[in-house]
């Protein structure tokens, strides 16, 4: 019989059926591993030109789709049609998924089915002509001067605040948690200073900063070699405060946190001696900031301040590691908005 060829390949879990009797097809439970026919692992291994975080996002989005498809009895990509994908997009919309999430998952599906067709695993790409809502265009958040001073410890009363809190001068106790007065706390403060100066002074992505190795730093010449998205390498200047902070951390702090578990050459390590993660960096900013601040806001602020100061758009593109100048152009909109705000607040005819 050929009534349901896709369902027939599903693995049925349960007691062995008597000879001669055919088991009724069952839909797999929600959250089960998708059938081998989806070849998600092979697809993930094919993504050699994108960052590891992007690969994880693709795999996560595709497993969400295959779990949903399994409820319909679909055991592989050959059973997916364009109406199926439209139904999936509608399903996400009715479940209240954000437009950005739906757009991202549609993008993952396009890349996945495109790979299936290019590699001869599928004859027809069901995503051709598939329309999905565009994610909301959001301008990058740029830190206010007072927020930046708080993170960098540059307030005029920083030493007074540090003295009141029991911390050593030059390391302000700000944010939600008081400064740790222990020796380990002082070392961690050196690390945090270096990380924040690097993020703002060079505009690195948080994954680029936490993934740095010591041999990629050239403090004498004030520059750092960065491996960005798609394994693309670029060289970025280091600001003088970043060089000073990195020297202090590497000379006086890092060795006290290094353990046998520390990856050889890792610049930034946590209290357990392991390489610092992007999540660790988010906690560092939350400790210092007066309000929740994502590490990427420092990169946005770096780019916007360069453009405000007259930097060429192509130069900013190179420093940020953007493959498309259109990605960098969104910062010009931020700069215009900032200029308009200043004009409205200061000009008597505004």
In short:
The chain has 350 residues and is mainly alpha-helical. It is built from 14 helices and three strands.
Structural domains: how many: 2
Query: What is the residue-averaged pLDDT?
Result: 81
User: What does the overall shape look like?
Assistant: globular
What is the CATH C-level name of the largest domain? Mainly Alpha
- Number of E-state strands: 3
How many strands, which pairing sense, and closed or not: the largest β-sheet?
A: 3 strands, antiparallel
- The chain-level structural class is mainly alpha
Spell out the CATH superfamily of the largest domain. Intergrase catalytic core
Order of strands in the sheet with most strands: 1-2-3
- The arrangement of helices and strands along the chain is HHHHHHHHHEEEHHHHH
| Percentage of residues assigned to helices | 40-55%
Q: Explain this structure to me?
A:
- The protein has 14 helices and three strands.
- With 350 residues, the protein is mostly helical.
- The protein folds into two domains: 32-137, DNA polymerase, domain 1; 145-345, Intergrase catalytic core (hpI Integrase, Chain A, Orthogonal Bundle).
- β2 (223-227) and β3 form a beta hairpin.
- It starts with a helix and ends with a helix.
SSE diagram, text form:
Elements: H1 5-8, H2 40-46, H3 52-71, H4 82-94, H5 99-118, H6 145-152, H7 158-165, H8 183-202, H9 206-210, E1 217-218, E2 223-227, E3 233-237, H10 240-257, H11 278-288, H12 296-308, H13 313-320, H14 325-346
Antiparallel strand pairs: 1-2, 2-3
What distinguishing features does this structure have?
single chain, 350 residues, mainly alpha, DNA polymerase, domain 1, hpI Integrase, Chain A, 2 domains, three-stranded antiparallel beta sheet, 14 helices, 3 strands, 51% helix, globular
């Amino acid at each position: 019989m050929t009534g349901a060829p896709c369902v027939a390949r599903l693995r049925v879990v349960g007691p062995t059926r008597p000879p001669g009797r055919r088991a009724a097809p069952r839909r797999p439970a929600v959250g089960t591993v998708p059938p081998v026919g989806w070849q998600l692992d092979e697809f993930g291994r094919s993504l050699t030109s994108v960052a590891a975080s992007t690969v994880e996002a693709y795999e996560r989005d595709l497993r969400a789709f295959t779990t949903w498809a399994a409820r319909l009895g679909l055991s592989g990509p050959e059973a997916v049609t364009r109406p199926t994908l439209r139904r999936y997009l509608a399903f996400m919309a009715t479940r209240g998924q954000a437009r950005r999430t739906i757009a991202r998952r549609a993008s993952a599906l396009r890349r996945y089915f495109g790979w299936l067709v290019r590699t001869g695993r599928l004859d027809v790409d069901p995503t051709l002509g598939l329309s999905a809502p565009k994610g909301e265009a959001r301008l990058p958040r740029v830190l206010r001067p007072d927020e930046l001073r708080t993170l960098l410890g540059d307030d005029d009363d920083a030493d007074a605040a540090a003295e009141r809190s029991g911390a050593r001068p030059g390391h302000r106790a700000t944010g939600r948690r008081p400064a740790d007065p222990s020796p380990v706390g002082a070392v961690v403060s050196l690390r945090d200073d270096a990380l924040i100066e690097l993020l703002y002074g060079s505009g690195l992505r948080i994954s680029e900063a936490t993934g740095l190795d010591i041999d990629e730093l050239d403090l004498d010449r004030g520059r750092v070699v960065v491996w960005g998205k798609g394994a693309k390498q670029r060289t970025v200047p280091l600001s003088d405060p970043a060089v000073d902070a990195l020297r202090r951390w590497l000379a006086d702090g890092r060795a006290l946190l290094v353990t046998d578990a520390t990856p050889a050459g890792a610049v930034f390590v946590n209290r357990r001696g392991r390489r610092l993660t992007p999540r660790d960096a988010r906690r560092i900013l939350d400790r210092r900031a007066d309000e929740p601040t994502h590490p990427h806001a420092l990169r946005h602020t770096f780019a916007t301040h360069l453009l405000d100061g007259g930097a060429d758009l192509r130069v900013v593109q190179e420093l940020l590691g953007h493959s498309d100048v259109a990605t960098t152009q969104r910062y010009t909109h931020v700069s215009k908005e900032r200029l308009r705000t200043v004009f409205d607040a200061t000009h008597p005819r505004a």
